[in-house]
Amino acid sequence: MQALKKFWNDHPVLSNWLVLAIGFVVILFFSARHVGFTLSQWTALIVTTILLAGLCAWILDWE
């Protein structure tokens, strides 16, 4: 647990990116699970979602 706290304090933007990416991908999965995407479409959506989470984390760091 201490390692997790140290990582959170040492790398706040990366930590935010990780948390946002996990949340975004979970929301994506539950929102689009019955759409019928192919594996390549899921992959593209997940990669794009992770990049979007990174952009959001970067924007949040602008304060």
Protein architecture, described:
The protein is mainly α and 63 residues long. The protein has 3 helices and no strands. The radius of gyration is 14 Å and the shape is elongated. The model has no long low-confidence stretch (mean pLDDT 92).
Envelope shape: elongated
Alpha carbon gap, first and last residue: 28 Å
Count of runs of 4 or more consecutive helical residues: 3
Helix-strand sequence: HHH
Which consecutive residue ranges, at least 5 long each, have pLDDT under 50? none
> Main β-sheet: number of strands, strand sense, barrel status?
none
Question: Compute the gyration radius: what is it?
Answer: 14 Å
Derived from helix and strand composition plus strand pairing, the structural class reads mainly alpha
Give the strand tally. 0
Q: What percentage of the residues does DSSP assign to strands (E)? A: under 5%
Mean pLDDT: 92
Short description:
The protein has 63 residues and is mainly α.
List the main descriptive attributes of the protein structure presented here.
63 residues, mainly alpha, 0% strand, elongated
Secondary structure layout plus pairing:
Layout: H1 2-10, H2 12-32, H3 39-60
Helix pairs in contact: 1-2, 2-3
